[in-house]
Design a protein that fits this description.
The chain is an alpha/beta fold. It is built from eight helices and ten strands. Bound molecules: S-adenosylmethionine.
């Protein structure tokens, strides 16, 4: 998958690219490219944003700057999906992640300050996605959330089986994962459920399914 991120802060992604699962799939199942709007802006002195028409605080990312960045990267406007990250978008969930992870090419647009000129969302992007009903200072963290969530669905990202039974997976009927415990079996009187120490795999499986169902209904 080719995943392109347009941002004002490309160096913010350094940490993410060194961590699993992104590091495991980079250069293999994932080709991650970072583009700075400043590198291709048609304006002087690296300008990328401007005052909002109608007044008000903050600066708005200009549509001509975003178009120039896309055209420089693709030699025209891309014909694959372009996701604008914005609090006003469709809220991200696991089914949206699975859907986007199935694309061969995907572009993410992030903004800062007051956000995008609306024409970026309506004319240059095909999708608008929010990572939740709260406002962050920039689209870099939302883009990283999406890159991480997509990367772990790509072949080679996770140890075999580990991404199969987890929260929101079809294996758990879209519900939440059951609780996990590890050693010690008794810590300050906080004991691990007996069934997990029983060695009876059928009972353990039944207990886990029940826990998953109970949590998902809560
Ligand atoms: C300070 S926010 C702009 C908020 C915007 N003025 C509003 O009230 O909806 C700056 C940028 O951060 C990103 N951002 C902030 N919160 C986000 C969220 N929940 N989901 C996706 N992107 C977000 C977007 O790229 C946004 O344009």
């Amino acid at each position: 998958m080719q995943l392109d991120v347009f941002t004002l802060v490309p160096h913010a992604f350094g940490w993410l690219t060194e961590q699993r699962p992104v590091a495991s799939v980079l250069g293999r199942a994932l080709d991650l490219r970072l583009f700075s709007y400043r590198d291709t802006t048609p304006l002087r002195a690296g300008q990328v944003d401007d005052d909002p028409y109608g007044g008000g605080p903050g600066m708005v990312l200009r549509v001509d700057v975003a178009a120039a960045a896309l055209e420089a990267a693709y030699g025209g406007l891309p014909d694959h999906r372009v996701v604008a990250l914005t609090p006003q978008g469709r809220q991200l969930d696991q089914s949206a992640v699975e859907e986007l992870a199935g694309e061969e090419r995907l572009t993410l647009l992030s903004a800062r300050f007051e956000g995008f000129d609306e024409r970026i969302v309506t004319q240059l992007a095909s999708d608008a996605i929010s990572i939740g009903p709260y406002v962050l200072s920039g689209g870099e963290l939302p883009a990283m959330v999406l890159v991480d969530a997509i990367a772990r669905r790509l072949p080679g990202a996770l140890a075999e089986e580990s991404g199969v039974v987890e929260s929101f997976s079809s294996q758990l009927e879209g519900g939440l994962e059951y609780p996990h415990y590890t050693r010690p079996a008794d810590f300050r009187g906080w004991r691990v459920p007996e069934v997990l120490l029983s060695g009876d795999h059928a009972r353990i499986e039944e207990w886990r399914r029940e826990q998953s169902r109970t949590r998902s209904l809560a």
